[in-house]
Amino acid sequence: MKDAMAVVGSPTIPDAHPRPVPIALTIAGSDSGGGAGIQADLKTFAACGVYGASVITAVTAQNTKGVSAVHVVPADIVAAQIDAVFSDLDVRAVKIGMVARQDVVEAIVAGLARWTPAPLVVDPVMIATSGDSLLAPDAVAVLRDRLLPRATLITPNLPEAAALLGETVAADDAAIARQGRALLAIGCEAVLIKGGHGSGPESIDHLFTADGIVRFPAPRLDTANTHGTGCTLSSAIAAFLARGEDIVSAVGAAKAYVTAAITAADRLAVGRGHGPVHHFHAIKTP
């Protein structure tokens, strides 16, 4: 019995040469339902093999049916979170999602100027899957003119791309190409216009860089459980960038991950509205 107790209680031998894990940071709003925002970002980081840190810009009362309340975190607290993370952690990539209002955007821009992180993925979140607004109207211009030019990659969906440019939603490839080039001219290194709001048998994401256009097609899946898809894609891209992938490879890997997460979404049965994608679809469960 004594020997058995000794075996059970024996400490594990620590790794003499621990390997640093890639770290990614999400700057975004909290989703109390767990399907989007900070919660989706951290789940995605973990699923894609990176350590996740967070800066919370807003707290939402939210579930699969919609957003019932939003509390914006004061800009000075957002700034303090940014400084706390960067002063200690070796952040290899940053994803920015919901920024809520103008003073928060300005605090983020100032924080990025202090720490100059790279790469930076910006998902210009304006409207939730439920249709609820997540960005104050007076913050759109500040987002477009001050934050987006700093980005390595921005990831608008079709309505967001149109809103940033003050245009109607692109209805064909020619319009998507024109809007992609216009967004690229803002100053970011690359633009990914997502095709989830489009039509047809395929959902095609269009990546615009100085070298041209790369298309990422995937079957359009028949499911209502797509809550947090945009958050998940941008976070997956940031995760793969943190792991050292280039933009094209990171987008391709992230697209494959999100497609699999949507494919498996109906296995979860979470909530009574637009359920979340299955972030941990690759893990076997009972």
What attributes characterize this protein structure?
286 residues; alpha/beta; nine-stranded mixed sheet; 9 strands
Structure description:
The protein is α/β, with parallel strands linked by helices and 286 residues long. The protein contains nine helices and nine strands. It has a nine-stranded mixed β-sheet with strand order 3-2-1-4-5-6-7-8-9. α4 runs parallel beside α5. The longest helix has 17 residues, at 247-263. Residues 1-10 have low confidence and may be disordered.
**Main pleated sheet:** 9 strands, mixed
H/E series: HEHEEHEHEHEHHEEEHH
**Gyration radius, in Å:** 20 Å
- Tally the beta strands: 9
Binned strand content: 15-25%
Task: Describe the global form.
Answer: globular
Distance between the termini: 34 Å
Assign the structural class, choosing from mainly alpha, mainly beta, alpha/beta, alpha+beta, or little secondary structure. alpha/beta
Q: What share of the residues lie within helices?
A: 25-40%
Uncertain segments? 1-10
Could you give the order of strands across the largest sheet? Answer: 3-2-1-4-5-6-7-8-9
Instruction: Please report the number of helical segments.
Output: 9
Estimate the mean pLDDT confidence: 91
